[in-house]
Structure formats: structure tokens, C-alpha cells
Amino acid sequence: MHVTRRTLLSAAAGGAAATAGCSDGWAGGPDDQSPTETDRPLPDACPTTQNLGVEWPAELTDVESFMVAYENAYYREVVVDYEPTTRVDEYGLEAVVSDGPTAVDGGYEVALYGTGGVYEPGLHLQAEPADPPAGADVVPVGEVSDDTLRDFLETAAAEGEAETVVQQQRDRIDELIERVAALSDDAETLDSPGDSATAYVDVDGSTVELTLQADRFHGDYWWSARYYVDKRVVRRVDDEESDPREAGDLLECREQS
Fold first, then answer.
1. Domain match, 129 and 209 both
2. What is the mean pLDDT of residues 84-110?
3. Do the beta carbons of residue 118 and residue 92 sit within 8 Å?
4. Distance (Å) of CA 243 to CA 63, 110, 177
């Protein structure tokens, strides 16, 4: 049989296309896109876990969803170690897949990047004399049990206005929010950055409008990560370029059943 150069090139191209299709597969796709199991020994640190509460499925049928859920939990609980200090604090970080999943070495590699902000609002208080709207719940200043807040309202009545910001005293923020909400039916409880509430207080015959507002102070975050995951291990590096199989931290490992 006479084999031409064109025939050889066509055969080589067909083989390359098939290999590329196999190496760039998704779990749960066609059989020729699934990774090939490798019989490698488990790491010495196995078993280990971060206890993030993210289910690691025995069969990797949806790698992307698992890795997004895992990275978001890992970044919040381990990297940021997030713990809100007030009721208006808010965690606003989110990671998404930027590359993959790519079938490799019996598992998958997935690159992710994340952005967002962690909000730690300050509480702005402003008070000034004002005519209350019809039907407003006007509270006598004597019912204000917080000495500092009562002095603040009396200053506004006497001087025409008063302003302050509570930022560092995180426990004081919740205390003021809850006390004002309990003081007046008009004042709703603040729950998120940007929320505000208004109450009306009678100070010796002068109605003072008290406004509380949580600002939107926050820290911005940008990050990237790359994972290797198979049925036995989850490894992570802090960038999208390094090989997590070689340089990655071992975050999860389970023994073979």
C-alpha cells in the first residue's frame, strides 16, 4: 500500500484532535472526556480535611460547581477568616471559574478568580430640629435610657444640629441600632451596609429628627487560585499558573474505600 505524505499528516492531525478532546473534558460528559484513574499512593497526611461543610462527591459529576462552592468556603473561612462584628457587616466576596475544568492525571485542574468587598460599616448619627410627619411616633427624651444618646439629642435641640460617627467601637454600633429601634415604632432595625432609620424625639417641646445610617466602608479583594481535584485529594495554589499537583497545598484527602 502506498502511503502519501498527505495521508500521514491527516492521520496525525486526527490523533492530535482526539487527544486534545480527551485532555480538556468535563466530568459527567462523554466517556472519552473523563479522566483516566491513576494508581498513585496517597499522601502521608491523608486523611485530612478543612471541615468547610462542602460536600465532596464520590463521583466528580459536576467539577465546576464543587470547586466554586469549595473555593468560596475556603476563602471565607480560612483565608479571610471572616467573622462579622456587627449586624450590618457583610461578606461580599465571590469566586468564579476562569479556566477548566481540564481532565489531567486522573483528575481535573480548575482555575478560579475572585473579587468583591468585605464590609465593616461605620454608624453615622445625625440629629436636628424638624417638624415630624403626620402620625409620627414622637418619643419623649426622658424615654431615652442611653446617656450619651440623650446628650446627643439635647445638643441638637440646643445648637441646631449634632453629628457623629461610630466606627471603632463595634459593639457600640449594634447597641445604638437596637436601642433606637426599640425606642420608636418609626425606626426599623438596620441589617446591611447603606441601611438607615429615622426616629423623632421630643426634647423640651422641640422635636428632633434622629437619623442613623450604616455607611458602606469596605476593603476590596482580588485573588486567583488553581486546584487539582480527583476522588482522593484536593490541592490548591494561590495563583492561576502554578501546577497544584506539584506546588499545591493538600487541603483534602480521603482514603480509598
1. yes
2. 93
3. yes
4. 18, 10, 49
pLDDT in tens, 234-243: 999 998 778 9
Judged on CB neighbours under 10 Å (0-12, 13-18, 19+), 233 is buried
Q: What length is written for the chain? A: 257
Residue 193 domain flag: yes
Q: How confident is the model at residue 27 (pLDDT cuts 50, 70, 90)?
A: very low
Q: What is the per-residue DSSP string for 172-223?
A: HHHHHHHHHHHH-TT-PPP-STT-EEEEEEEETTEEEEEEEEE---EEEEEE
Burial of 160 (0-12, 13-18, 19+ CB in 10 A): exposed
- 12 sits in which H/E element: helix 5-23
Do residues 245 and 35 touch, judged by C-beta distance below 8 A? no
Query: Structural domain of residue 162, as residue ranges?
Result: 123-214
**CB of 67 within 8 A of CB of 112?**
yes
State the total domains in the chain. 2
In a domain, 152, yes or no: yes
